[in-house]
């Protein structure tokens, strides 16, 4: 595999050549990074043509991500997402301790009256992490016998350009904390995607055949993840 960067119409595109059959172009949140996976023998002018044909779509995707990149103030009344559903944030003041809970169609955040935006954000993220720690073992334990693999370790972290990663040698997978704002079908898709890497390291024909076999609707889930 080899990687290089080009610029087309002011858009920086990262091109990664792989032993795959078809060209894949994606725009990644949160900053609209454009990446192309191309077959090893694919001519550069053909790659340019494919990118140029989708240039308007790329611009639309980048604009959509840009409009989504607001920094919530974590004030009462703001809308927050949890597992793909919108909830109204309600802040409560208390003198000691802090916690976050989901009550009907609202997220209740208990913190000091003088808690800063950053402190409330950390509380929400800590709650997301706690909920994700409860969900991941269920998903992993379900899929281990289905795929015939074992995940020896897993972790959660904030990632800017990836939804997950897999260390094949250590049998360890990492998941992006931001997946907790997406529908659970998206979280499950990323979990399966990373676990399939324990069977096939590369994004090649065999990898996608395994995805088709074990999770036939993975493409729809991937689209949902990218568009949600």
Gyration radius, in Å: 20 Å
- Cα(first) to Cα(last) distance is 30 Å
Number of helices in the DSSP assignment: 6
The helicity comes to 25-40%
Structural class: alpha/beta
- Helix/strand order: EEEEHHEEEEHEEEHHH
As residue ranges, the low-confidence spans are none
- Gross geometry: globular
Strand content: 25-35%
Mean pLDDT comes to 89
Strand order of the largest sheet: 1-2-4-3
Tell me which oligomeric state these chains represent.
single chain
Number of domains: 2
CATH class term of the largest domain: Alpha Beta
Biggest sheet descriptor: 4 strands, mixed
Task: Provide the fold topology.
Elements: E1 2-8, E2 11-18, E3 24-28, E4 33-39, H1 44-53, H2 55-68, E5 79-82, E6 85-93, E7 99-103, E8 106-111, H3 117-147, E9 153-157, E10 164-167, E11 172-176, H4 184-196, H5 205-214, H6 218-227
Parallel strand pairs: 2-4, 6-8, 9-11
Antiparallel strand pairs: 1-2, 3-4, 5-6, 7-8, 10-11
Helix pairs in contact: 3-4, 4-6
Write up this protein.
It is a single chain. By secondary structure, the protein is of the alpha/beta class. The protein has 2 domains: 67 residues, no CATH class; 108 residues, Zincin-like (2-Layer Sandwich). Helices cover 39% and strands 29% of the residues. The protein is built from 6 helices and 11 strands. α3 packs across α4 and α4 crosses α6. The longest helix has 31 residues. The two termini are 30 Å apart. The mean pLDDT is 89.
